User: Which sequence fits this backbone?
């Protein structure tokens, strides 16, 4: 790649990014309970899906039921988060990235924990469904909806969003 002095000089003139100000962790007990629920669901999924991949004849029925229950609970949490966010959007400027992925709207500790829980669900779902293709373990790919829904619920209830600008009219 050729060196262009103008391009490199422009890059040097940009202002440095301001450091991210971490929102405070909410004191509400529900904030901690939502994070705990995410990990309970993740553990339940892993503890049923992994044995089902190893011994499907014994554990597959339980794994499918857990996957479907987590999918249903995650869908309900997702919808609940959406309704709460609609209510908050009258006063707060809520973006989808901040709401469902906690981008800039949650303390790093909460964000990291919820993302890790969701990530474990995705890895377990893909690994177990791939281990036994064309079996009921494919229902496991629905389970990460739980992690996503719970993450959205945390963002809707406790996320920090800037105030909505006043309407000029």
Assistant:
């Amino acid at each position: 790649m050729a060196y262009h002095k103008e391009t490199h000089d422009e890059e040097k003139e940009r202002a440095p990014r301001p450091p991210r100000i971490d929102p405070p962790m909410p004191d509400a007990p529900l904030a901690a309970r939502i994070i705990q629920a995410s990990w309970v669901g993740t553990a339940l999924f892993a503890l049923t899906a992994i044995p089902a991949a190893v011994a499907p004849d014994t554990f597959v029925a339980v794994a499918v039921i857990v996957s479907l229950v987590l999918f249903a609970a995650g869908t309900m949490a997702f919808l609940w988060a959406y309704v709460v966010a609609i209510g908050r959007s009258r006063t707060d400027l809520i973006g989808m990235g901040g709401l469902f992925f906690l981008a800039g709207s949650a303390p790093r500790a909460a964000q990291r924990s919820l993302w890790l829980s969701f990530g474990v669900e995705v890895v377990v779902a893909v690994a177990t469904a791939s281990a036994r293709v064309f079996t009921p373990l494919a229902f496991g790919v629905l389970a990460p909806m739980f992690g996503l829904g719970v993450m959205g619920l945390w963002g809707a209830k406790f996320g920090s969003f800037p105030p909505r600008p006043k309407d000029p009219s």
About this structure: The mean pLDDT is 91. Residues 56-88 form the longest helix (33 residues). The two ends are 51 Å apart (CA to CA). The chain has one domain: 28-158.
